[in-house]
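Would you kindly consider the sequence and fold I have copied below?
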Amino acid sequence: MFQYYFLLGVRSLRRNPALTALMVLTLAIGVAASIATLTILHVMSGDPIPNKSSRLFVPLVDNGQPENYKPGDEPNDRQMSYRDAVNLLNSKVGERRTAIFGVGLPIEPDRKDIGAFTARGLATTGDFFNMFDSPFLHGQGWSPADDKSGADVIVLSRQLAEKLYGDADPVGKRMLAGGFQYQIVGVLDTWTVVPRFHRVIGSNDGAFSEEDEMFIPFTSAIRHEMQRNGSTSCYEDVAPGYQAFLDSECTWIQSWIETRSASDRAELQSFLDSYAIEQRKLGRLKRAAPNMLYDVREWLDYMKVVGNDNKLSAWLAFGFLVLCLVNTIGLLLAKFSVRAPEVGIRRALGASRREIFTQFLIETTVVGLVGGVLGLLLAFGALALIAMQSKALTLVAHMDWVMLITTFAMAVMSAVLAGLLPTWRACQVTPAIQLKSQ
C-alpha cells in the first residue's frame, strides 16, 4: 500500500504544476538557507581531534600586575611568558609538553626560477607533532637532543616542499631560511585541522587559518634571536636587548600539555597550583589569580571560536525556514482543498480517514524529497559562494556526510510537519455533502 500511495504522490506532482513548483521551491530555499548556515556552524564547532581533545590542555598562569585587579577578572593574557613556558617544558608533568610561537622566515631557494619569499611557520618542540597527530609524508620530526641543543633542523609542509623541490623527497637536504642553513628532517602531509585549535592565537584568520608552511625547534629560534610573528602583550617597559625581553613578563608563547588520560587533569591542576606558589615566593604572579586549565573544547569555547554572531545567524536561518514552512502549509491547504470531491468519493466507496491521511501525508513526503534534492543543490551553491569570500571561509564552507543526511532528513520532516494540518483538514471532508454537490 505504501508503494501505491508513493506512486500517487509522484503523480500528484503533475497536478497544478505551478502550485507544486512553488511549494517545492519554497521548501528548498528554506532548507538550503538553514543547512548552509548550520553546516558552517557545524564545522566551526566540531571537535578537531576527538581522540585526544579531553587530554590536551592549555595551562594559564596570570602574571599581570596586581594594580586594579579584582578577583574574577579576566587573566592578563591568554599566552605565557618565556620564563613560564620554559619552566613547564623542563618539568616532568604530563606525557608531552610543547611551546609555540609564530615566526616568519625569508626563504632563499636553490632553484633559480623561484625568487626569495617569506614563509610563515612555528617555532615549537619535537613533541608538537605527536601531540597533535601531525601526518608525515616524508621523514619525521626532530629528536629531544635537537630540542636540547637548538639544532638547525626544519620540517616543511607538503605545499612548501613541493614548491621548492617538486615531487622529490627533500629529507636530508639543506635550505637557507632566515639567513641560516637548516637541514630538512621531515615533510608533513596535507594537514587540514578545522578549527586549527593550536593556532587560535597569532594568525590572521585565527582558528581558521591556512596550514603553517614550516616548523623549526623552539630553542633554535631563541638561539638565533628570531622575532615573533604573532601577538605579544607587555604591561611594563622592557629593557633593550633580546635577553631582556626573554626575562620580562611579556606574554607571547602558547603552551600545551598532553596527559596520559583525561583523569590526570586533577594531577596537572595540582602541579600548576604548586608551580604558581613557588613563583610567588620568588616575587612573581602577584595577582594570586586562579590557575586555569582548558582542554581542547573548553579552549575553543573560551576563545569564542564560535561567536554569538554565528549562533544568531543559525537561529535567523531556522526562523526563515519556519516562515517557508508556514507558506508551504498555505500552499498545501490550497492544493488539497481542490481535491475535496475526490476525497468524498473515496470515503463513500469505503476508504477510512486513516487511509486518506496516510495517502496525503505520503504525498507531502514526496514533495519533501524533491524539495530536499533541490535544497541540497542550492545549499552547495550557497556554500560555494560563501567559500569565495575568503580563504578562512573556504575551510568551513563545505558539507560532510552528516550534513548531507541532515539536509534530506530536514527537508522530509519539514514537509511532513507542513502537511499535517492540510492532511488533517482533508480527512474532515463529509462524503454526503461532497456527493450532493456533484
Summary: The chain has 16 helices and eleven strands.
